[in-house]
Design brief:
With 116 residues, the chain is of the alpha+beta class. It has a domain of 79 residues: Alpha-Beta Plaits (2-Layer Sandwich). The protein is built from 4 helices and 5 strands. A 5-stranded mixed β-sheet has the order 4-1-3-2-5. A hairpin with a 5-residue loop joins strand 2 and strand 3. Helix 3 packs antiparallel against helix 4. The longest helix is centred in the last third of the chain and has 13 residues. The chain is globular, with a radius of gyration of 18 Å.
Length: 116
């Protein structure tokens, strides 16, 4: 109860809190990424998880039925830009031929997981 009262007091004392929070959240984006080429069986998912952890990115990665790798990731735009550049190369045994990137709604992932 005391925490709730403190939070309410804080919000009343700092009317810019919601604006600041909105600006902070606007820096974060969600990307759906599909990577094509020789990307399965070459440690792409494991390398992706390692890179995501290194950069502080949340989301998931999985192999898709068509031989591609599918990712949904969230983080700061500038960090995700670097991550997409990495996805275009992938790990050393991968041969990436195409990467599709679509921005989508935030899902608020809490960590990064390998699915499947």
């Amino acid at each position: 109860m005391k925490l709730k009262q403190n939070l309410e007091t804080f919000l009343v004392k700092d009317p810019n809190f919601l604006l600041q929070t909105s600006v902070f959240l606007a820096m974060f984006i969600h990307l759906n990424i599909k990577v094509f080429g020789r990307v399965q069986g070459v440690l792409f998912r494991q390398s992706t998880a390692y890179k995501a952890e290194e950069l502080g990115i949340t989301g998931f990665v999985r192999n898709d039925y068509d031989g591609s790798v599918y990712l949904e990731v969230e983080g700061k735009r500038d960090i995700l830009d670097k991550f997409v550049v990495w996805c275009r190369r992938g790990p050393s045994f991968a041969k990436v031929t195409k990467v599709e990137v679509v921005e989508s709604s935030l899902q608020k992932f809490s960590g990064f997981v390998i699915e499947g």
